């Protein structure tokens, strides 16, 4: 008899010929997420299991697995040789002896002459007898379900709960994405949602020292570390933005300050994206949330880049975004009151419906190429890993 954790993979099943690639990426991600615990990942007959761990680590392993994208559910289980009498005895020892229950048997091993239903009935009978009246069978309205999975290799797995995990696709299978990461609530959530679809996240943060403090930068690093529990370690580029803001303020109309700033942010993000072989830029924008997120504003900032820009939150309300931020544990950090570079030199009346033509004309007063290149040359790169939290 051996403890094991059964891992069920979700959508990966749909991937036909790519299945091997998806599964091997998932296996790497699982091993990485369990680096700090003594245990082993094994696969047998197209299934994944964690073995070789001590009982006291079980909870920690399960909670790590719930954050690995590509896993649909897990079950702590007991693995034992297929001996139906011993299985029935074990079930009555390890499961509750009160309440309503049912037994479900899955018999992959057709060498066993009994049908699944008959085996389930026999196991149920032993459990009822040993419970001395505490248990009743109820096939529809049960408190717990005993599952017995009889495999072809002579072993059976017994488990009684399925713990739902994050679903999605293994991080790395969906290509690389360059996230614009601010210290706010939205962009860490955008990272989580794109990682859920298998995108490996790289990030860029624009920092306006000394107008934004060292604490503001630390906050962004912390956010990247928190989401890295789901995404894997994130390489974060911290780009100095103060010179650019001075240049815009000194040479362009103030109501276009944010529009032009955001166009330069996008240009820098695209350069970094190409360097890191990212196929898309990701932002935390949500339509209509602020002046820079109207359809016209988005069009004007979008027009300076040719990579696709993913905005997974475009149709979400703030309350929905906050719910996810709380679930992934970024909310409390996001609401710490440090300033963002977007709040420096903030115009009283930013343009709500900017035009591409006007922005382009104003930008002729700037040496954009030099501003972008200088900023990139002075970028600091930090690898953000939750293990450093
Ligand atoms: P967030 O909560 O993500 O900060 P927000 O509601 O504050 O979003 P904005 O400040 O307008 O909205 O930013 C919109 C998006 O632009 C952000 O989600 C992020 O992707 C990007 N962004 C804003 N400020 C920065 C910054 N300093 N560095 C990198 N990206 C940024
Ligand atoms: Mg913000």
Outline the fold blueprint.
Layout: E1 2-9, H1 19-33, E2 40-44, E3 47-51, H2 58-65, E4 71-81, H3 84-94, E5 99-107, H4 116-131, E6 135-137, E7 144-150, E8 155-159, E9 163-164, E10 176-180, H5 186-196, E11 200-207, H6 214-231, E12 234-240, H7 242-251, H8 257-275, E13 278-282, H9 295-302, E14 309-310, H10 318-327, H11 331-334, H12 356-363, H13 368-377, E15 380-384
Parallel strand pairs: 5-6, 5-7, 10-11, 10-13, 11-12, 13-14
Antiparallel strand pairs: 1-3, 1-4, 2-3, 4-8, 4-9, 7-8, 12-15
The chain binds adenosine-5'-triphosphate and magnesium ion.
Magnesium ion (MG) is lined by residues 182, 184, 340, 342.
How would you explain this protein's 3D organization?
- Helix content is 38%, strand content 22%.
- It is built from 13 helices and 15 strands.
- With 389 residues, it is of the alpha/beta class.
- The strands form two sheets. Strands 1, 2, 3, 4, 5, 6, 7, 8 and 9 form a nine-stranded mixed beta sheet that branches. Strands 14-13-10-11-12-15 form a six-stranded mixed beta sheet, with helices on both faces.
- Bound molecules: adenosine-5'-triphosphate and magnesium ion.
- Residues 182, 184, 340, 342 line the site of magnesium ion.
Give the beta-strand count.
15
Order of helices and strands: EHEEHEHEHEEEEEHEHEHHEHEHHHHE
What is the SS-derived class? alpha/beta
Distance between the ends: 37 Å
Q: Helix proportion of residues, in percent?
A: 25-40%
Q: What ligands can be seen in this structure?
A: adenosine-5'-triphosphate, magnesium ion
What amount of the residues lies in strands? 15-25%
Largest sheet: 9 strands, mixed
Mean pLDDT: 94
Low-confidence stretches: none
Indicate the multimeric state.
Answer: single chain
Overall outline: elongated
In DSSP terms, counting alpha (H) and pi (I) runs of 4 or more, how many helices? Answer: 13
Radius of gyration: 27 Å
């Amino acid at each position: 008899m051996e403890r094991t954790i059964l891992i069920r993979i979700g959508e990966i099943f749909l991937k036909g010929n790519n299945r091997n690639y998806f599964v091997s990426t998932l296996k790497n991600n699982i091993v990485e997420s369990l680096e700090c615990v003594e245990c082993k990942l094994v696969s047998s007959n197209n299934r994944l299991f964690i073995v070789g761990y001590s009982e006291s680590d079980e909870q920690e392993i399960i909670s790590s697995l719930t954050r690995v994208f590509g896993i649909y559910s897990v079950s702590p289980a007991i693995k034992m040789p297929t001996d139906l009498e011993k299985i029935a005895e074990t079930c009555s020892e390890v499961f509750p002896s009160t309440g309503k229950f049912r037994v479900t048997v899955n018999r992959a091993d057709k060498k066993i002459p009994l049908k699944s239903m008959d085996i389930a009935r026999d196991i149920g009978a032993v459990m009822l007898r040993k419970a001395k009246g505490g248990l009743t069978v109820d096939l529809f309205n049960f408190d717990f379900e005993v599952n017995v999975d009889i495999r072809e290799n002579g072993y059976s797995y017994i488990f009684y709960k399925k713990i739902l995990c994050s679903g999605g696709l293994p991080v790395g299978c969906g290509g690389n994405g360059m996230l614009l990461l601010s210290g706010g609530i939205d962009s860490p959530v955008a990272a989580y949602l794109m990682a859920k679809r298998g995108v490996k996240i790289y990030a860029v943060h624009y920092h306006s020292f000394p107008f934004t403090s060292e604490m503001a930068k630390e906050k962004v690093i912390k956010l990247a570390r928190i989401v890295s529990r789901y995404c894997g370690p994130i390489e974060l580029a911290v780009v100095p933005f103060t010179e650019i803001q001075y240049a815009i303020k000194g040479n362009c109309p103030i109501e276009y300050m944010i529009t032009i700033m955001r166009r330069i942010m996008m240009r820098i993000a695209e350069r970094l994206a190409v360097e890191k072989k990212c196929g898309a830029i990701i932002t935390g924008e949500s339509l209509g949330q602020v002046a820079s997120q109207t359809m016209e504003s988005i069009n004007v900032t979008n027009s300076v880049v040719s990579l696709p820009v993913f905005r997974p939150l475009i149709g979400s309300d703030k309350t929905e975004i906050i719910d996810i931020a709380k679930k992934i544990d970024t909310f409390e950090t996001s609401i710490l009151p440090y300033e963002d570079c977007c709040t420096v030199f903030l115009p009283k009346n930013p343009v709500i419906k900017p035009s591409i033509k006007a922005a382009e004309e104003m930008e002729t007063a700037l040496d954009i190429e030099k501003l972008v290149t200088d900023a990139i040359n002075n970028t600091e790169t930090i690898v953000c890993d939750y293990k450093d939290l």
